[in-house]
């Protein structure tokens, strides 16, 4: 019996492969699931049934705190019936007697004793043969990982590895960290093995190769002035910026003078949009498995918080239903601050095309409603016309989708303002 003939005669048959079939009822059947996973069902001539899930992963790839549960169910006259189940706790590799390598599968075997212990209906159906509806349930769960004392101690014992190019070949430079910039030294092998993001980053145009040697003139470490980054170009604020400020109040970053080193080369990435503390914590975690989260600390002073609350309270009296007893500064209060600022300066363009408006639907709707209600004033402002020139030049990411939403909002506002027709 060939696989092709079987598939053509029964179109509803799963896309498996019947590799062997004996006249005594034994068979081997394989089903490719995808991504290296496959299901294998084997029945021997004595009636024992083995169902295995092959994952093809290296031992330990799923981690050391993994629990695997495999359950086999039969759809009988009264519904689903549990036939057998197995559990694997942690790493329990077995030996594949055929290949001599570690076992890369989980399996359930139904022997004669297991079949006799099942219900009479299942036993009768199994011994009779024919079509049976079986359900195999595989559940893989991983315990929540937590850092150990050893991991924390290891992290604390490695304070200088990121400050020196020795044994490292990648330099991450942060031009806006500290008064003269800050740097982190790491190695490409760690980054590439840890994440596809870092692997792509090292191969992209953001990474440049630097050669230091006796035959080349000595150069000083790059300074922050080499890379210009104004506050207006920052898309979003990194919460670790405040941690950077706190860190550098007592420990100013120093740049390693590579001109005194022998000949060597490294790759350099200038990081503009992510805080130094963020990368430092990530690399520490990749090296040791330990991460310490920054304390919650706000850079806003009490006076700033008070003035913001007073402005919200004062402005709410003039708006119908806008006052709220909620003391939290949420999305609506932030939006009111923006609209108040635009009302005071009508020549300002609406902040429709910043990163926050692109990413957050609720925030974008607030700005869209404001612009649509005051479309004549906003569209006539010089700043808005300048913004439109940037949009036409394709210099604003996400502008196309926002413009479509804006035109829809303007049309709805104009229709709402029209007097009702008799």
UniProtKB/TrEMBL annotation:
PROSITE patterns reported in the protein's UniProt record: BTB
Stretches for region Disordered: 217-244, 299-330
InterPro entries per UniProt: BTB/POZ_dom
Residue ranges with Low complexity bias: 299-316
Residues in BTB domain copies: 168-295
Highest taxon of the lineage: Eukaryota
Protein name per Swiss-Prot or TrEMBL: BTB domain-containing protein
Organism: Rhodotorula diobovata
């Amino acid at each position: 019996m060939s696989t092709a003939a079987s598939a053509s005669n029964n179109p509803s048959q799963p896309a498996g492969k019947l590799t062997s079939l004996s006249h005594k009822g034994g068979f081997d059947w394989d089903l490719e699931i995808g991504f290296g996973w496959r299901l294998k069902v084997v029945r021997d001539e004595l009636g024992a049934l083995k169902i295995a899930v092959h994952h093809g992963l290296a031992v330990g790839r799923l981690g050391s705190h993994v629990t695997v549960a495999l359950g086999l169910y039969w759809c009988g006259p009264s519904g689903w019936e549990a036939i057998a189940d197995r559990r694997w706790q942690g790493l329990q590799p077995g030996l594949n007697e055929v290949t001599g390598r570690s076992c890369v599968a989980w399996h359930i075997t139904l022997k004669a004793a297991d079949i006799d212990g099942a219900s009479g209906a299942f036993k009768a159906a199994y011994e009779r043969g024919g079509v049976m509806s079986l359900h195999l349930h595989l559940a893989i769960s991983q315990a929540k990982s937590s850092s150990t004392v050893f991991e924390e101690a290891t992290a604390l014992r490695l304070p200088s590895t990121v400050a020196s190019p020795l044994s490292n070949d990648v330099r991450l430079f942060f031009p806006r960290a500290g008064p003269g910039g800050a740097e982190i030294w790491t190695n490409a092998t760690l980054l590439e093995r840890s994440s596809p993001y870092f692997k792509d980053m090292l191969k992209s145009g953001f990474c440049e190769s630097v050669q230091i040697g006796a035959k080349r003139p000595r150069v000083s470490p790059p300074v922050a002035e080499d890379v210009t980054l104004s506050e207006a170009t920052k898309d979003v604020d990194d919460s670790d910026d405040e941690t950077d400020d706190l860190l550098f109040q007592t420990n100013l970053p120093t740049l390693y003078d590579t001109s005194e080193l022998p000949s060597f080369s490294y790759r350099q990435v200038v990081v503009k949009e992510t805080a130094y503390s963020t990368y430092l914590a990530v690399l520490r975690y990749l090296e040791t498995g330990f991460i310490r989260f920054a304390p919650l600390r706000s850079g806003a002073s009490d006076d700033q918080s008070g003035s913001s609350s007073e402005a919200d309270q004062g402005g709410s009296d003039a708006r119908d239903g806008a006052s709220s007893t909620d003391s939290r500064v949420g999305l609506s209060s932030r939006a009111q601050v923006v609209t108040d600022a635009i009302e005071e300066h009508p020549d300002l363009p609406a902040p429709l095309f910043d990163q926050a408006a692109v990413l957050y639907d609720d925030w974008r709707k607030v700005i869209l409603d404001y612009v649509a209600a005051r479309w004549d004033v906003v569209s006539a402002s010089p700043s808005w016309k300048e913004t439109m020139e940037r949009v036409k030049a394709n210099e604003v990411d996400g502008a196309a989708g926002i413009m479509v939403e804006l035109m829809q909002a303007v049309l709805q506002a104009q229709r709402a303002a029209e007097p009702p027709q008799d």
